[in-house]
Design brief:
Shape of chain A: globular
Distance between the termini of chain B: 37 Å
Shape of chain B: globular
Number of helices of chain A: 0
Oligomer: heterodimer
Largest interface: A-B, 21 and 21 residues
Structural class of chain A: mainly beta
Structural class of chain B: mainly beta
Chain lengths: ~110, ~110
């Protein structure tokens, strides 16, 4: 079993749609959680950290469920510019463990 | 401020040749990571340095791979001899302290023919 698992997609959604991604992790000792965004042929960049109480940044909402060991990302009012791969990241000690990513394509 | 700087951006080489990838972390960042990204396996941690000391190299695939960090502002990842299955994008990333935002370089895209 992979340490961090994501549905690879692709998720093809129309502009303006709401889309949600989930991610599960296996290590209960995981301490910090993040969503990174990676554009085609570019490096990953931090989208947002994920806090136990849930957090929101504009159109993006992240949730953490420690009991079930999953993390979610909700994108509202999708824009064409949201098309990218979204990587779920779990931090255990010094290790940052990346999921293989979920591809999102927002269609005009 | 300058971000993580990697070179070369692209490398095409023939099987059996030595490849050296370079990384300059963000000034003040004391932790450095080398990752490899492929379509099949995603981002895999190869090696982690803290204060220039290799802490975890369990992700280095074989003895053909080696990494050094002679000072706080420079690290290298060397593959000798290279093989076609080493073809991937190699990312260097750095962070200040133990946790927080991991900053990536633009990556070195390696093709071994």
């Amino acid at each position: 079993r992979k340490e961090v698992e994501q549905d690879p997609g692709p998720f093809n959604v129309p502009e303006g749609a709401t889309v949600a991604f989930n991610c599960t992790y296996s290590n209960s000792a995981s301490q910090s959680f993040f969503w990174y965004r990676q554009d085609c042929r570019k490096e990953p960049k931090l989208l947002m950290s994920v806090y136990s109480s849930g957090n929101e940044d504009g159109r993006f909402t992240a949730q953490l469920n420690r009991a079930s060991q999953y993390i979610s990302l909700l994108i509202r009012d999708s824009k064409l510019s949201d098309s990218a791969t979204y990587l779920c990241v779990v931090n255990v000690g010094y290790k940052y463990i990346f999921g293989t990513g979920t591809r999102l394509k927002v269609l005009a | 401020d300058a971000g993580v700087i990697q070179s070369p951006r692209h490398e095409v080489t023939e099987m059996g040749q030595e490849v050296t990838l370079r990384c300059k972390p963000i000034s003040g960042h004391n932790s450095l990571f080398w990752y490899r990204q492929t379509m099949m396996r995603g981002l895999e941690l190869l090696i982690y340095f803290n204060n220039n000391v290799p802490i975890d190299d369990s992700g280095m695939p074989e003895d053909r791979f080696s990494a050094k960090m002679p000072n706080a502002s420079f690290s290298t990842l060397k593959i000798q001899p290279s093989e076609p299955r080493d073809s991937a994008v190699y990312f260097c990333a750095s962070i200040r302290g133990g946790t927080g935002e991991l900053f990536f370089g633009e990556g070195s895209r390696l093709t071994v023919l």
